[in-house]
Structures are given as structure tokens and as C-alpha cells.
């Protein structure tokens, strides 16, 4: 359960990033405002969906456990409660995976926006390649739940967010140096 809590906290911390990126492009590259708005919507929707998965998991898991414990052992009702619990756990997992697909689209759009600025070509292509990799890995996981490829996805996503944050900080420092 701690993994779900950490996942929720990490997504909560990520929530402002799509809006910060939109604000940056709106202020510095007004010709990119439409695309940055679409990008921000993808980012906010993806992060919101990612946060919804743990909420569903925790709001149902405790109640189902209490119902399960109140039933006689080896009852058919316990089997039904276990089935319902598994369904909610799968819904939570699939929401997380779907949000990661949307996050990969968001990252690809961020990479594309950065390519348009011509100021971060290497970072842009790195973000686009990682977005394609994430999309592929999560798609495989959706069709093959036993796939081990997703194990390092969180680390890769955290690294991408750090790179984007580093780039935004660099842009902020460059803007201050020019004034």
C-alpha cells in the first residue's frame, strides 16, 4: 500500500509541471500558445487520472477488507468480495497505465514544443525518445500484464521530469541574466 501512497504523492507533486510549461511557452513563445494549451491539458488529465487510481484503490480496499472479515470463513460471499476487490485493484492499475500512456503523449508534445524553440535540441529529442519508449512499454504491459519491462518506468519518468525541471530552471536563469 505504501507504493500507492508514494505514487499518489509523486503525481501530486507533478501536477503543476504541465501548467508551468504552458506558462513558459505562453510567455516566451506566444506562437506556440495553442499547442502548449493542448499539451497542458494532456498533462493535467494524465496526472489527475494517475491520482485517481490510488484514491479508488484506498477507498474500496479498506471497506472490502472489513466486509470480508465480517463474513463466515469459506463462504461463497467471501469469494465474491475477493472478486470485487480484484476488480477494483485492476481498475486502479489500468487507470495508472492509461495515465502513463497519456503522460507519454504529453512528454512527446513537450519535446516537440522544445524542438520548435531550437534552444534545447538534445533535450527535446531525449524527451521524445523516452516518450516513445514509455508508450511502448505501457502498451505492452496493458496487453501482457506479466511483462517485466515496466519495473524501471517510474525511475525513467522521474528522470524526465527532473530534466524538464532543469531545463525550465536554465531558461529562468538565462532570462534573468538578460535583464
The gist of it:
The protein is mostly helical.
Helix content: over 70%
Order of helices and strands: HHHHHH
pLDDT < 50 runs, ≥5 residues: none
Biggest β-sheet strands, sense, barrel: none
Number of strands: 0
Radius of gyration, whole Å: 20 Å
Mean pLDDT: 83
Percent strand equals under 5%
N- to C-terminal distance: 49 Å
| Sheet/helix structural class | mainly alpha
* Overall geometric form: elongated
Note the total helix count: 6
Structural write-up:
With 179 residues, the chain is an all-alpha fold. It has helices at 2-14, 16-28, 33-70, 76-117, 121-143, 153-178. Helix 2 runs antiparallel to helix 3, helix 3 (33-70) runs antiparallel to helix 4 (76-117) and helix 5 (121-143) packs antiparallel against helix 6 (153-178). The longest helix has 42 residues, at 76-117.
Amino acid at each position: 500500500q505504501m507504493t500507492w501512497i508514494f505514487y499518489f504523492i509523486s503525481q501530486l507533486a507533478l501536477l503543476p509541471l504541465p501548467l508551468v510549461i504552458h506558462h513558459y511557452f505562453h510567455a516566451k513563445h506566444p506562437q506556440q500558445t495553442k499547442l502548449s494549451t493542448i499539451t497542458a491539458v494532456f498533462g493535467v488529465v494524465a496526472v489527475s487520472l494517475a491520482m485517481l487510481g490510488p484514491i479508488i484503490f484506498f477507498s474500496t480496499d479498506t471497506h472490502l477488507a472489513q466486509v470480508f472479515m465480517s463474513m463466515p470463513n469459506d463462504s461463497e460471499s467471501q469469494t465474491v468480495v475477493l472478486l470485487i476487490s480484484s476488480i477494483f485493484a485492476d481498475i486502479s492499475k489500468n487507470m495508472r497505465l492509461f495515465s502513463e500512456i497519456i503522460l507519454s503523449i504529453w512528454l512527446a508534445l513537450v519535446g516537440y514544443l522544445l524542438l520548435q524553440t531550437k534552444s534545447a535540441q538534445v533535450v527535446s529529442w531525449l524527451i521524445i525518445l523516452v516518450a516513445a519508449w514509455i508508450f511502448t512499454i505501457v502498451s505492452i504491459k496493458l496487453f501482457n500484464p506479466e511483462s517485466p519491462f515496466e519495473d524501471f518506468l517510474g525511475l525513467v519518468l522521474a528522470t524526465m521530469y527532473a530534466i524538464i525541471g532543469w531545463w525550465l530552471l536554465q531558461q529562468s536563469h538565462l532570462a534573468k541574466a538578460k535583464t
